[in-house]
Design a protein that fits this description.
Blueprint lengths: L1 E5 L3 E5 L2 E8 L4 H13 L5 E4 L4 E5 L7 E5 L2 H16 L7 H5 L2 H11 L7 H14 L7 H7 L5 H4 L30 H11 L5 H20 L30 H25 L1 H8 L4 H22 L5 H12 L3 H5 L6 E2 L4 E4 L8 E4 L2 H8 L13 H15 L9 H16 L8 H8 L15 H11 L6 E4 L2 E4 L7 H7 L13 E3 L8 E3 L5 E4 L7
Parallel strand pairs: 12-14
Antiparallel strand pairs: 1-5, 2-3, 2-4, 5-6, 7-8, 8-9, 10-11, 13-14
Length: 545
């Protein structure tokens, strides 16, 4: 049976003297009484009472695990006791004490060790969780050891080389992040709100939102998978930071030409360096065996000066970055999809490239235009990857290209902007193509899982939509209304000459005005002359063979 133990504090107070009020632990009643006597000796009238702020509910049973729960009032303690006894009568057992004994920091560590290695973003999640643990006073977790110990990591993560920790903290320390020391059952939405408010002062709201994603994933798995029971998910009711970081950067004027020119120059420099490394291979071996760093640098410097001119004269140009830029502009692929593309998944004959793994987890195929096929056929095949460029190497090369092309500062161009440019161009091209491209066509081209992500491109399809509406709602009538009168259309099956020929026997005196074609009386004959003579009524519903 469950029992309730009152551990509320004792309080000694004096009327109108809040500065004399003191509280004492539940087992320090004698100290409270001594303090009362000392106040009485000073001429005060102290009052000793007990607060209603802390209770312990103990559930002891031979057939089930012992639980110790806490409550902040007697009413709450009674409610917990009744709930436990009701579950016991129904032969149910829910370990509520586990949520109090397990801190959110414990859950973050368990998530990092058991769940994060299953995600291809394991390294990024590991950095964020380690930063949270460090801010709260816990030790950072070794990501390499966690990955090595995991039984089933993500295939991409399994072959990943985890970078060695430097011990330096890049971001700003968060004081409000210390709430992860609290028990899981004691965390409330206000804890996350305080954290969000503080972090938004140091980093962008989008960064804070991604950090909250980790908290949300941990809480959800703790409740649904690990069965750590709480009255309510502490993330319920948390208001995430609002932000709008959608970019609409398009290439203007000669920016594309300047970017490609800079890419060709970057390819030239890298091709020369690759040839230079081939020529100075022997000097590299000699430098590696040098006894001092100074000697090693001297050998390499001399070799570069010796072979540089020969490298410039004999290098073979490899248009790697130029093709990369064109690939992004013609396919709209994501950076990660392009950098992981292998030659085995490229079919130049059918003009397709297969992506076995994308951001949303679904495989898809890219359509390769004939111009792009010719560019890809010119690339050297020195390895498995089509674009053997590392993420860091691409970032540095892109910065140099943008600086040379004048695409920095206010005119900053990012790699992902090329994807936006590609999708926008396809949407615009659809307006000049018979039938046009719908959002579903754009979804197939871009690889978005949710078509709502493409609504930002809907305005580019408006012209195509207007043309298709014209074709769908084209009027089959042979006449139109103009200033209240019916006129023949250009494709009408009856001509004005035929009408005049049929009305020729009529007296000439009756035709004194203009000929006006109307369609008011379809019950009459095909052509009928009435008074006044300047009106001819024609039934446009008939078709002349």
């Amino acid at each position: 049976m469950a029992s309730i133990e009152n551990r509320s504090h004792y309080e000694v107070s004096v009327k109108h003297r809040d500065d004399l009020t003191q509280t004492f632990a539940h087992n320090a009643k004698k100290k409270a009484e001594e303090y009362c006597r000392s106040l009485t000796a000073q001429g005060f009238k102290p009052k000793l009472g007990r607060l209603d702020n802390y209770y312990v509910v103990r559930d002891r049973s031979v057939s089930r695990k012992e639980q110790t729960l806490r409550a902040s009032s007697q009413a709450e303690a009674e409610s917990i006791k009744n709930k436990l006894e009701d579950e016991q009568q129904r032969s149910l057992f829910i370990d509520y004490a586990r949520a109090y004994q397990t801190t959110l920091a414990d859950l973050l560590i368990r998530y990092l060790q058991e769940e994060a290695p299953r995600h291809k973003s394991f390294e990024v999640e590991g950095y964020k969780i380690n930063a949270l643990l460090e801010d709260a006073g816990f030790e950072r977790q070794d990501l390499a050891k966690i990955l090595a110990a995991h039984p089933n990591p993500h295939p991409k993560v399994a072959s990943m080389k985890i970078r060695k920790p430097t011990g330096a903290r890049m971001g700003q320390v968060s004081e409000s992040g210390k709430f992860i020391r609290k028990g899981f059952a004691e965390i409330v939405p206000d804890d996350f709100t305080d954290y969000i408010d503080e972090r938004c002062q140091a980093v962008a709201p989008a960064t804070v939102d991604r950090e909250i994603d980790i908290f949300s994933a941990v809480c959800r798995i703790a409740i649904d998978t690990w069965r750590i029971h709480v009255a309510k998910n502490p993330m319920d009711g948390v208001r995430r930071p609002r932000y709008y970081n959608e970019r609409d950067r398009r290439l203007k004027g000669d920016e594309e030409e300047r970017l490609l020119r800079a890419a060709r120059e970057e390819d030239r420099e890298q091709s020369i360096n690759a040839r230079l490394e081939q020529l100075m291979a022997a000097e590299r071996l000699e430098a590696n065996g040098a006894g001092t760093v100074y000697r090693r640098k001297q050998v390499i410097k001399g070799a570069r000066q010796l072979y540089m001119q020969e490298a410039e004269d004999t290098y073979e140009h490899a248009p790697l970055l130029e093709t990369f830029v064109n690939f992004q502009l013609m396919t709209g692929a994501r950076r990660s999809e392009t950098l992981t593309l292998t030659w085995s998944n490229v079919d130049l004959e059918t003009q397709t490239a297969y992506l076995p793994e994308t951001k949303n987890g679904r495989a898809r195929k890219l359509a390769l235009r004939s111009d792009l096929v010719r560019m890809l056929s010119q690339l050297p095949r020195n390895g498995e990857l089509v674009f053997p460029i590392g993420v860091d190497g691409l970032r540095k090369a892109w910065l140099r290209m943008c600086q040379q092309a004048g695409l920095t500062g206010e005119n900053e161009l990012r790699i992902h902007d090329l994807r936006h440019e590609a999708i926008s161009r396809v949407a615009e091209a659809g307006s000049n193509t018979p039938g046009g491209f719908s959002l579903v066509d754009l979804q197939h081209f871009s690889g978005h899982r949710d078509v709502r992500m493409l609504l930002r491109y809907a305005h580019l399809c408006t012209q195509s939509l207007a043309k298709r509406l014209d074709a769908a709602f084209a009027s089959p009538s042979e006449s139109i209304s103009h200033h209240g009168r019916r006129r023949l259309t250009s494709g009408a099956s009856v001509t004005l000459k035929e009408i005049l020929d049929e009305s020729a026997p009529a007296p000439a005196s009756e035709f004194t005005g203009d000929v006006v074609l109307e369609n008011d009386d379809f019950a009459t004959a095909a052509v009928r002359v009435v008074t006044p003579a300047n009106v001819i009524r024609v039934n446009f519903a008939r078709n002349v063979a």
